[in-house]
Amino acid sequence: MSSLxxxxxxxxxxxxxxxxxxxxxxxxxxxxQALKGRDIxxxxxxxxxxxxxxxxxxxxxxxxxxxxxxxxxxxxxxIARLLLPGDPILEALCGVAAVAGHNWPVYLxxxxxxxxxxxxxxxxxxxxxxxxxxxxxxxxxxxxxGYASVTSTLVAISLVVIFVLRAVFAxxxxxxxxxxxxxxxxxxxxxxxxxxxxxxxxxxxxxxRAKATAQRQSE
Length: 219
Fold this sequence. Notes:
mainly alpha
């Protein structure tokens, strides 16, 4: 039983469901519609994450979407802390649920984003230092690689490494390692079409590399 006298299994179920529903909120769709009057699903990849919001609505839309999606991950972890304080397993599960909701939102026929921003947000809620590392690292990787899919993959792998090192050397809960592994899998599953395009050489570029490529093609 929880401190409120409610069965722990019920608390788990409610928390995970709420985390999923929070993660499923299509921030990119809302932001781009509000700023540009466009349906983000009709632009670029059709995803609702920050990268496609950037394509569909410009820099402001991309930034607002990224921040909103990060907030979903942070909120999901705090749902666990509110309903069952001091339970790292539930915190991890709620973080995973938020990423799953973002990638496969019930509100949009289970087609959403790739999970990077809510993944970073939830990870930062689990350990705030992650936010200090990832906030500058994510745009740097994106600028260097030019591919959102590669960036998402490298970020997910980086989170696994960070949480493994922290568990080994600082005694952090291994549930957080489980979180990072599970979300890395969810990100990879969402990006399977992108990996195919990378192999075929048809994956979309974003950022400075995309502009440089477009300029070369126009010359």
